[in-house]
Amino acid sequence: MIADGNKPPPRPNPPPRPRFFRRLLKLLIRAAVLLMLLFVLDRLWPSISQQTQSFVIAKWQQLSLLQQDLPTENSLPSPLPQQNLSDTWGAARSQGRTHEGIDIFAARGTPIQATTAGIVSKVGENTLGGRVVVIVGPGGAGHYYAHLEEYADIAPNDWVDAGDIIGYVGDSGNAKGTPPHVHYGIYIQGNAVNPYPLLQKSEPAR
Fold first, then answer.
1. What is the pLDDT of residue 118?
2. What is the spatial distance between Cα 83 and Cα 91, in angstroms, rounded to a whole number?
3. Which residues of 40-60 are buried (b: 16+ CB within 10 A; e: fewer)?
4. Who contacts 59 (Cβ-Cβ below 8 Å, separation ≥6)?
């Protein structure tokens, strides 16, 4: 018999057996999920990268444009070179409106040229203008082209230079049935200004 003061130390509990198959299964599941995520990222990354790059470039260009001077008298080429320009600014329109731009008439399908370098902010439709294109140019001025027959191969955030084709003359919107023309307007800080004095005048084609 062992004396009370000389009891042997208790035996340690045996270590639990490793649950090998459960751990292996968890590891395989994690590996499968990781591979799936890598596959999805590999598929999506090129398009995400292009969209991000396009957005960043457009924002940088917008900031650069804001630092440039607004158009001045006779500084802009006509969107329809060689066509006669008339100052129709402020003429009466339906529903008590006044004309916030000028109309330049030409044959249907005549190419319309950008009057300034800038960033395309809209290629779409509205009720009055029909098919329209909006370009943000130097000083943040918005250049508005309306009643287009068709668009050129442009999209929002594209950069255009003065003289680039942005669409073709038509009679879309509330101009339906009138002689084909482009309505050209300029907006500075959201307010319409008369574009006629800002456009260079040239002799009409004969």
1. 95
2. 20
3. eeeeeeeeeeeeeeeeeebee
4. none
> From CA 6, how far away is CA 2, in angstroms rounded?
6
Q: Is the pTM of this model over 0.85?
A: no
- Report residue 85 CA to chain centroid gap: 30
Cα distance between residue 105 and residue 83, in whole Å: 7
- Two tokens at 203? 């002799």
Q: How many CA atoms lie within 13 A of 177 on its CB side?
A: 1
Please say whether the beta carbons of 112 and 144 come within 8 A: no
In a 3-state reduction of DSSP, which class is residue 162? coil
Estimate to the nearest angstrom the gap between the alpha carbon of 34 and the chain centroid: 35
Burial of 79 (0-12, 13-18, 19+ CB in 10 A): buried
Domain range 94-198, CATH class: mainly beta
Q: Please say whether the beta carbons of 60 and 159 come within 8 A.
A: no
Phi first, then psi: give them for residue 54, nearest 5 degrees. Answer: -60, -40
Report d(CA 172, CA 164) in Å as an integer: 21
For 23-55, write each residue's pLDDT tens digit: 778 878 888 888 888 777 677 766 666 667 677
Rounded Cα–Cα distance for residues 132 and 78 (Å): 17
State phi, psi for 66 to the nearest 5 degrees.
-65, -25
Residue 178 confidence (pLDDT) = 93
CA 52 from centroid of its chain's CA atoms? 12
Q: What is the pLDDT at residue 22?
A: 78
Domain boundaries, the chain: 18-67, 94-198
